[in-house]
């Protein structure tokens, strides 16, 4: 019995534990550092939470406030992360906002410095050029993928991708938030959008416009994955547009037929309407009423004719799209012009019959 007990007491951790306990019995300073009494722990934690709540959350601080911040190195790393070769001076200008220029002017006035900062130092001109590039290449890319879609639909998808929410989110994900020189931190969504567009212009100036177009396609078009692009275009008269499209293609006028119905005498009624042309089903859809079902069926027929239905091929990456050979000025047919053309032809035909 004695040998195992001696081996246990001779272990290093047991000896150290006994030494600490023996020392803590005679040293009150060491004992007060630990909350050994379980009854005193909940009040202590409660007091910590109350103090934290009273002070409020920690304000968001720029990474430079923590030290070890090299702005030039961050600019260089930004370009390498994106796989782009930027001109450093142009990229630096792309991250300077108008509020930062105004703050610098105010600080110089307080100090007594009379030198003026040129207006070209901020990214306003670059953001305007970047916006034009984004719209031009987005529309060209969408026309390449949807050659049968009307120009109004192309513009509606482009407007969705150009919203402040989308551009600010993309700019934040590629890391422009910490590099923006602004009056306040974090920068506003408008400053994020202007900076992202300025970065696109910086890519075009540092390399080529085609490279900037590939940059736009790779970062903005993936935002359409999982979205119904047809719902972005609000159609007021889908049946009238469908009739005009079929007439322009030499097909018979659309005919709507009730395929089946259920629960007509209840609040859960359902009607399934199909659209036919030359006895061929070109679209069908359910609805709560016959009017709603017919309207939705006309939209489905237009989707099938424009080849923008859910079974369409996936979006192509910039490497598979010939951006250099795309006609950036060419536009798809306009739905409004088509409606006006065939509405005038219908009225003239009615007058001729009379």
Task: Tell me what you see in this structure.
The protein is mainly alpha-helical. The protein has two domains: 68-225, Ribonuclease III domain (Ribonuclease iii, N-terminal Endonuclease Domain, Chain A, Orthogonal Bundle), CATH 1.10.1520.10; 236-343, 2-Layer Sandwich (Double Stranded RNA Binding Domain), CATH 3.30.160. Helices cover 55% and strands 7% of the residues. The protein has helices spanning 2-9, 12-25, 28-31, 41-55, 71-82, 88-94, 98-111, 124-145, 151-161, 164-173, 189-206, 209-220, 238-248, 290-306, 335-353, and strands at 255-262, 270-277, 280-287. Strands 1-2-3 form a three-stranded antiparallel sheet, with helices on one face. Strand 2 (270-277) and strand 3 (280-287) form a beta hairpin. Helix 8 (124-145) crosses helix 11. The termini are far apart. Mean pLDDT is 83; it is low at 5-10 and 12-32.
Provide a brief overview of the structure:
Helices cover 55% and strands 7% of the residues.
What general outline do the C-alpha atoms trace?
A: extended
Most strands sheet:
3 strands, antiparallel
| CATH homology group of the largest domain | Ribonuclease III domain
Helix % is 40-55%
The CATH class of the largest domain turns out to be: Mainly Alpha
Overall structural domain count: 2
- What is the H/E order? HHHHHHHHHHHHHEEEHH
């Amino acid at each position: 019995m004695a040998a195992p007990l001696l081996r246990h007491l001779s272990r290093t951790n047991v000896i150290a534990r006994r030494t600490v306990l023996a020392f803590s019995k005679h040293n009150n300073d060491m004992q007060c550092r630990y909350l050994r009494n379980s009854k005193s722990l909940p009040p202590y934690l409660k007091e910590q939470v109350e103090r934290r709540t009273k002070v409020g959350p920690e304000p968001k601080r720029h990474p430079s406030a923590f030290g070890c911040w090299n702005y030039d190195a961050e600019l260089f790393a930004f370009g390498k992360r994106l796989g782009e070769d930027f001109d450093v001076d142009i990229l630096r200008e792309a991250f300077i906002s108008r509020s930062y220029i105004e703050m610098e002017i105010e600080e110089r006035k307080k100090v007594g410095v009379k030198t003026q900062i040129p207006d070209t130092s901020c990214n306003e001109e670059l953001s305007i050029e970047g916006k034009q590039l984004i719209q031009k290449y987005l529309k060209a890319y969408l026309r390449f993928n949807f050659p049968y879609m009307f120009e109004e639909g192309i513009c509606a998808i482009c407007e969705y991708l150009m919203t402040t929410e989308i551009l600010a989110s993309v700019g934040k994900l590629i890391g422009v938030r910490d590099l923006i020189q602004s009056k306040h931190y974090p920068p506003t969504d408008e400053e994020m959008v202007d900076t992202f567009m300025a970065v696109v212009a910086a890519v075009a100036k540092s390399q080529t416009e085609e490279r900037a177009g590939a940059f736009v396609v790779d970062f903005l078009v993936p935002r359409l994955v999982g979205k119904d692009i047809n719902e972005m275009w609000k159609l007021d008269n889908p049946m009238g547009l469908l009739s005009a499209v079929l007439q322009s293609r030499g097909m018979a006028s659309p005919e709507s037929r009730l395929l089946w119905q259920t629960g007509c005498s209840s609040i859960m009624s359902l009607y399934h309407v199909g659209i036919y042309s030359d006895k061929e089903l070109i679209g069908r859809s359910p609805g709560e009423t016959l009017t709603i079902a017919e309207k939705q069926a006309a939209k489905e027929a237009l989707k099938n004719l424009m080849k923008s239905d859910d079974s369409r091929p996936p979006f192509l990456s910039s490497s598979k799209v010939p951006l250099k050979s795309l006609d950036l000025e060419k536009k798809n047919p306009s739905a409004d012009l088509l409606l006006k053309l065939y509405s005038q032809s219908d009225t003239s035909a009615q007058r001729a019959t009379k």
